[in-house]
Every structure is written in structure tokens, then in C-alpha cells.
């Protein structure tokens, strides 16, 4: 049995302004009608031996992750919530521990949630080869066969080829590294070394040699084997992760890791913590049309181009524009005389950059965060488990929002200390709790919620409830929420 372990944390700052801290790139539809997370799981549908996936994500994204899985009719083995980000080594450690609790000792196929792979059949073949090596006790990584001298990726140097489904030396009485002929090896090789991102000259030499592959961040191993190596190489990290699982708790569709223990784990990647140190690392070449879509230039590289080599999405008009990426979400983009540029428009931000400078978008995000700009954190439209809200207008003492409540959903029973609210129903039907009263509102009807009044909004109907909310008061922040009851188990301000 193979359990896909999907790592769905991260903020994807290089794809700002589409990717934000509260709505990162793995949850966006960047290549088709499905999100990156959904496509990561959908491409495994026809692969042999796949069990229900295990997802590890940031707890602030939990409801969006659960909703995206529901939309593709997929029930996970577990959705594990990281209270804080600690990189891939602790994430894989807690997932391996949880997988062994729930499924014995499965093979784990570790996949980042934000990659693109076009040749699914070839990918499945490599998974099967990886499963053979992992079942024999090896820690497998999939190395991407490079087609250009890329300076944005780390590389892995291949060592001695494995001529056969090699059984580890310590299992057969032979020395580690000796080859045992058991079947077809399929290009697998021992890992000689990991190499940091090179400069262009060195990257050209790597590609020309044929000995180096891009580090994909995809792995495969027996759950017990990665735990065994963590015990040997990172015993303190493993101990902390075990406590984070032991003291964790189920919450609705999720498993919450214990905050204090998990926060105490050292932040490290699985590459540095284990793969660079283990004696049992194996790399399998993967040539299946892969991209990590780590920048706007990568989206241009992989996108469908017009006759002038432009990739265009949304309402865009161009004149004498070539080799550019133009993406509009809300408004018309009109561009004249551009070469090798990126323009990305969202409702609250516009990015303009030369294609060869898009890696520097991270610097803009850093500036936004340092000045506490909301554009670094969220879009104007914010998703909640009950639906969404979108800010239409905002001034010093008032804010206007458009609120959408899903059929059958309801907000928490709450009150505010600093603001009053006026609700007007645009479409659908609302049940409003206001103090001791409960009223029903339909289209074009409204109600007023005075400051400090206990209230709740619910959609009892079969269609989405749309309403306009006008807030007024001295403070309009989302943390001015005192919850008394919430079906989603949220804390204050979340």
C-alpha cells in the first residue's frame, strides 16, 4: 500500500499578488480548472496501489484544503494541521508517525502540493520503480532530468547505478553499496551528493555531464525506515514530533498537532536532516514534464503561447507585445510595445516586472509585510468555512462588505465591542439571531445589529445567501469578534 503524503504548507511569495499568505499558490487554479493541490491528487488516480492521501497543511488553510478535497470527491486518511511552519523534516516525521498508527507500515510517497507533471503515465512508472527500492529499505528521491542549465534549483549528483532491485547490503550479508541482481533497476542510482543552486557556468557543466539531476523535493520510503533514520540522525526532532502527535487531538475533519511540542521542533528540510547524511539514499531519474511553477517566468515557460509568444489570461488587449505573461482577474489590461514582461492584475494589486526579475517579487512581499500591508496576507476576498466575504469599500469609521454564505452554513454566535452592522439581503434567505430574537430575511430586506448585541447569520436555503454588510464604529478589525458558539471550532478572530 502506498500513501501519498502531500505537503501543502508554504506561502508561495514569488507568485504574489495571486499567491498570498492566507491563500497560497497550492490552493490556486494556475494551469486549469483545478487547484495545484487538487491536481497533485488527481494525477495519482490511475496509479497502482494508492491509498487515501495524508495531507499536512497550515491550520489557517484547513477549511480551504478540506473543501478542495470535497470538490474532487476525495476523503483523506487525515488532514494534519501544523500550528507553525517547521519545514519538511518535522512535517514528514509527524506524518510517518501518524501513518504507522493508522495504516501499519505503508510506503509513503511524499509530494509537494504545488508541482506540475504533464506525463502522468511516465510518472506512474517511476512511482512503481520507487516503490521497489523503498520496499527494499532505501530512501528514494526523484531527480528531474534537466533540459536547461537552471540556476534556480538545487542539484543531486548520481553515484553508482543500482543494477537490479538491489537489496541493502545489511539485509543480505554483503557490504552496503554492493550490487545484488534481483530484477530491473530502471535507472536508479545511489546518491553521491547534494549540490546547492549553482551559478550559470556551473549549471551548464552539470547538465553537460549527465551526472546531475534537479532536486524535485519528491521522496518515497517505508514509514518505518524514515522513522528509523530520524531516530539515528535526528533523535531530538523525532522525540519532539512523537510528542506532538501523542498530545495532538482530532478536531472535526482534522488532526491538530500539539502546538507547544511541534513549535519546539528544529526547523529543517528533509534534505539536510536525512537525505544528505543517510547511507541508503537512492535517486531515480524522472522525465515527465515537470515544473514547480516557482515564479511567473515558470508560468510563462509552461503556458500556452500565442503567435507572439505571449501567455494571456483574462481580459487583456495587446499591441506589439512579445514574449510576455499577462494575467487579468478583474479589469482590462492594455499593453503596448512590451518585450519579456510580466503583468499580473488582481482586485487590490498590480505587479509589473521584467521576466528576468520576477524572482525579486519576494522583496516586494517583504516590504509589504514590514509596513503591515494587508496585501501581503490576504486578498480583498477572504474565504471562511461558511463561505466568503469581500471588502467593497473601507474608510476610517466604516466598511462595506459583500458576504456569501453557503447553503446550510452558519456563522458563529458572536458579538463586537467596537462596531455595529447593517445587513441587507441581495439574494437567498437568511435566518438572523439578534439578541433573544430570531428573524427571517429575504431579498431586499434588512436588519441592524447594534454594537455589543449577540448575533448570528445562517443560510437555511438551497442557494447561496448574498448580502451587503455595512460596518460602522471606532475599530473594524477582524479580531473584534467574541465567539460564544461555533460549529467549526474556531478561536477568536479566525
Describe this structure in a few short sentences.
By secondary structure, the protein is of the alpha/beta class. The protein contains twelve helices and 30 strands.
Question: Would you mind describing this structure in some detail?
Answer:
A hairpin with a 3-residue loop joins strand 21 and strand 22. Helix 3 (88-103) packs across helix 7 (223-233), helix 3 crosses helix 8 and helix 7 (223-233) packs across helix 8. It contains twelve helices and 30 strands. The two termini are 37 Å apart.
Distance between the termini: 37 Å
Largest sheet: 6 strands, antiparallel
**Which class do the helix and strand fractions yield?**
alpha/beta
Low-confidence spans: pLDDT under 50, at least 5 residues?
169-185
Helix content: 10-25%
